[in-house]
Structures are given as C-alpha cells and as structure tokens.
Write a structure and sequence with these properties.
Order of helices and strands of chain A: HHHHEEHHHHHHH
Number of helices of chain B: 17
CATH superfamily of the largest domain in chain B: Response regulator
Distance between the termini of chain B: 67 Å
Shape of chain A: globular
Oligomer: heterodimer
Strand order of the largest sheet of chain B: 9-8-10-11-12-14-15
Helix content of chain B: 40-55%
Number of helices of chain A: 11
CATH class of the largest domain in chain B: Alpha Beta
Helix content of chain A: 55-70%
CATH topology of the largest domain in chain B: Rossmann fold
Amino acid sequence: MRDVLLTTIRGLGFGSVYAMLAVSFVIIYKSSKVISFAQPALMLAGAVLVSYLAGPVGFYLAVPLAALGIAALGLGLERTTIRPMIGRPVFVVAIITLGLDIAIRVVVNVFIGTDVRNVGDPWGLDTVSVAGLPIQERYIAMVVVLVVVVGALFAFFRYSRYGLAMRAASLDQETALVQGVSVGAMTALSWAMAGGLAAVAGAFVGAGGGVDQSTWVIALKALPAIIIGGLDSIEGAVVGGLLVGVVESFFATYQGEYLPWLGQNFSLVSPYVLLLVVLLVKPYGLFGTREVERV
Amino acid sequence: MSSTTTRRRVAAASLAGLAVFAAGCRGGSEDPGDGGGEGGIATDVGVTSEACPEAVNPDNGCIYLGTLSDLTVGPFAAAGPTIVAGQEAFWARVNEAGGIGGYDVDVSEYVRDNQYNPQVTNQVYQEIKPDILGLAQTLGSPPTASIVEDLAAEDIVAAPAGWTSLYLFQDVILESGPTYCAEAMNGVDYAAETYSAESVMAVHYAGDYGGDAAAGASVAAEANGLEFANVETTAGTDNQSAAVAAIVDQAPDVVVVSTGPADMATIVGQSVAAGFQGRFLGSSPTWNVALLQSPAAPALTAAYQLLGPWGPWDTETPGHEAMREAAGDTTPNEFFLSGWVWSYPMKAALEAAAENGDLTRAGLAEASAALESVDYEGILPEGSGNYANGGDAAAVRTTQLSDVSADASTGVTVAEADLEGSTAEGYEFTGPCYEEVDLG
C-alpha cells in the first residue's frame, strides 16, 4: 500500500507538469486552431531563464519573471510569424511552429552549453514525512503550482473581460468581431499565456534534476494528454496530464514485476495505450467538443 | 501583382538557379589537389600547395580534414562543439610546431553539423568529400555507419568521437582508448574485488553505447560469478522511474550506469533518496562537472565513481599538460580533452604518410593501417593505437577510475589509475560486444 501511494504521488507530481504543458497547448489550440510545436522550446527557454535568474533573485521570483519573459517571447512569435499566416491552412502554421521550435532550441542550447543547468529550486531531492510516507517535496510543489495556476486561469476566463473575450473569440471569431472583440489581440494574448505557462512548467521539470539540451522532449508528453482530455478543453488537459503522469508512474513501478512480457520501458508507451483506449470509447477525448457537421 | 514583386521574384529565381548551377559544378568532381606536393610528397584530394586560411606557417601547404559533428539539435549537441574546440587546439599546436611534412593541417574549414542523423551525415559528407583528405572527427556510430562503406571505398581515414567496440572492427576508423565494453568489465572486476559485490545491475541506453557497456558488465559478472540484471532505459530525466524502481527493488551491490549525465544524476539521486545502499559506476559519458551543483551532488559524492578512458583534465602527463596549455582560458571540460586525445592517431598517420612521401588518400590509409602504436604523450598506455593488427589487438584494456571531487577542475579525480581487471585482460574481442553478448 505504501508503494502504491508513493507511486500515485510521484505520478501526480509529474502529471501536474504535463498538465500545465497540456493547458498551454490547449490555450493556443482554442485561439488559433493549431497545435503549436514550439511549446517544447518555450518550456526549455523558460527553464533556462529560471536557471540564470535563480542565482541573483532566488527561485520564487525567478519563476514569475521567466514566465513574463517567455510570455513576451510567445507574444513576439505570434506577432511576427503567426499573424501573417492568418487565413492560411492550419497545417502550414503547425509546420511553422515546428521550425520555430528548432530555431529557438538552437539559440537556447547556446545558453545551456555542455552543462546540466540547475534551476535553483529549494526542494532538490528532499523528502517530507506525511503520515509516515517519505514524499519528495518537489512533487507536492508541482501539484500545488498546478492547482494555483489552473485556479487562476479558470477565474480569469470566467470573471475577467479579457477572459470572456478570449472565450468568445475561440467560439466564433466573426461573431466576436461583430461584438467589438479584437480577435487578433486575443490570439496574441493566448500565445503569451501559453508561453508563460510553458515557462512555469519548465521550471518544475528542472526541479530536482536540472535541465540539459535534451529536456525539451518532456514537453511532448503533453501531446497524449491533450488528446486524452480533448483538444479544446482546459479541464480535459488537466485531467489528461494527471492521468498520463499516474499511468506512466504505475507502469514504471509495477510493469517489470507483473507484466514483464511487455518488455522494458513499457511505461513510455503506456500514455499512448491509454490514449487509444480513451479514443475508442470517446473519439473526441474525455472533455472534447463533439463536432457536428451538416450533411 | 505589382511589377516590383515580379522583378524580385525573377531575381530570386535567377539567384536560386545560379546557386544550383554553382553547386552542381562544384560537386561534380573531386579536387585532384596539386599532385606535386611539398618536398616531393605525392598528394591528391584535400591537400593543396596553397597555405591554409589563416595559416600559422604561410609557406606551408595545407591538409584539409573534415569534421562531422553534432553541433545543434542532436542528442550530443552539448558535446560536439567542445570536441571540435579540443581538436582545433590540438592541430593548432601541431601547426605551431611546423606542421607535418611541409603542410599545415586545417580542421576548421570543413566542419559540418551531422545532427546525429545518418541521412544528414551522408549529405554533408558528400558535400565536403571532394575537398578533404580525411575526417578529423565523425561523431556517433549510427551516423558513421551511414558513410563507413564509402570511407573504406575511397580510402578516407577518420577519427571517431566515441568508444564503442564496433570501431575496433572498422578499418578506416582510428579509435582511441578502451571501449565502453572493456571499461565496464574493469568496473565490475573492481567492484567484485574492492566492494565484495555479489550482484551487479547494468542500467543503460540501448545500442552501441549503453548496450556495449552492459555487455561488458554482463561478461565480467559471469567471470566473477556475480548475479547480473539488465535494465534498459531511455533518455529523459522523466523516464528514469522504472530504472530507479528496479534498482531499489532488486538492491544490487553495484550498478553500472551508461546514460547521459542528467539521467545518471536522476538515477543515482532518486535511488539513494529511496534508500538504496549500493555503489554506482558510470561509463565515461555519464559525467559532467555541473552535476556538482545539482541536487544529486551529495549522492554522487557518496556513491558514484566514473570509469574513464583516460585521466581527467588535471592528470599529470605530458599530453594533459600540453592540452591544458593549449586550452588557455577555456573552461575545463572532459569533451575538450577527448577531442584532443582522439586526434593523436590521425597525427601519427599523417606523419607516417608524409614520411613515406605519399599524402594521397590511399597513402594515408596505407600508413594508418601500418601503425603499430601511437604516441599519446602518456595519456594512454604504451602500445595503444595498434591499428596494424586491428580488432582484438587494437583494443585498449585499461581504465581510469575516478572519484567525485569538488576541488578538481572537472569535478573528478583519479582514485585508481590504469585499472585492468582479469576479465578485460582475458577477453577476446571478436566483434562488437553489444552484438556478441546476449543480455537476455
């Protein structure tokens, strides 16, 4: 039982990071109808920025500063490379984001250099005893940050004028324009928010281990999460991310013992197996909007 | 459409056409070189009587060596540029000493990014092939595999960046130092003797690096009568949970880790945090000095040792000393040292070819195939670099075992020099270890 609880908590910890990344993908998808493959690079850039800022200003201030910095980068990307592509097929925009991802990573890699960069988080690999269970503090921090960030996002979308405008723009751009919503500004804002979120996720990806040039790959774990949750649903992204984390954690701990015939490292495949199962039952994901087409 | 736009498009199309034409002309045939050479030395491709760009010796001719390294987006992009810097420092020293046979050696003009991708490697190799005598570096065995047949067919000699045992069996590849396989054998022998280990686990990436080390660990475990467990893992600090679970669950006495540095630190840090009491031995690519700043540093200092092909940065040998002097203010880095060491066999081959009066590709291939030893200035044991006999005879079997030390320039200091266990000593390399040994 003790192992099961520890495995669950580890899964929820990593799952929280995947969830934040998944939410960043979904925010862009809702505004631009495109999956931005630049998110891994923005996550890496955020983590690296935190690693540079944590020394002078401390981790707690470095994370919001890096989030603002990467949000500005996201905004800049939207203005310079995505905006001119309005009206072009989303496939073209997706390919552009792939190019952006590579270009940004090449630049960020220069700042990483040959070293593993420490993000300066206060938790390291320390554990705290909760009801006799040695729980790593960073997992608790990851879950807490997810709760805070997602809570703030829901409040923003529900109660703020900008949040309402973004929802309107994502629902129907023409109608939103007629109502006086600046759809362009809302798209730019969504890219900025996604950038900021990716940066926060990056800081927590690096917590306890540091970041190197290959850390960007972790962001791809968010892809099964957004499909499982439903591409256009923020709550789906959160649930999807957490599910991916927990399922992966359980396979990592128990598959070797109970299902050895699946081979080594099946935990890496497990999110995709979950994805297939979910899609068989719910083709639009757990919380995705069912598309209605008139024939 | 405005006429300005049309004109621009026509201009762009013309330029593109011109570029294609120029590229076609250039790639069409190989530069036959000058033929005559300096001091009656025969030359063909990649050797010119004109001085190198920014030549140290303007009166010398120039030998061009290409480099195919992972410089931007591949998994070893952190290492590639530093290895290139190390080899540039090495050849700068050779040129400052007068060059080889009246020629300076240029390793900067044809540096290309292979992105650790076989297709890209082949493409950039074909681009530089008409202009180079040999390759000062080809990084990664999958990329190298994509060109190795062509290298052999064209008599192009190459220095690798890596220690897989596969290189022992590729004639045009001039490898240096012990293989991952031999390194792991020595590590397990050492653990059996020093720590009285009764069980060993190999945690490793698949393929010619991790697989090679795991094969060595498996052979040595069997030779020492130890229990062996094989755990394959994949890159990514978030993907190490299964390996950590296996270590903590099975609690072997010693774990041989063959991953990247960040993954190794995750494995060691997490396992120790979960109560694992055994020892870790890391293959040479597992270490990076920055890990001393990571949360895993206390665990690494307490439980980890590095199996290295040669002494780390601070080691006192003439070769290390020359390297440190050439490096100047460069931040100490083991990859810089590696770029330096991997260059010695090419220097020996070029010198032998120049002495034979034949700096053609065939002449260089012949000279390198006849090398019975290479002077590594004390960095590797006497007799290393026996390419004349190849295969098993070329295998170096000594390892430098290092402890983590915050005082050392690169964070590691030798604890056991020239370690050569009985397993490696008695093992006959008949093929790449990772193909020869069944890990079960």
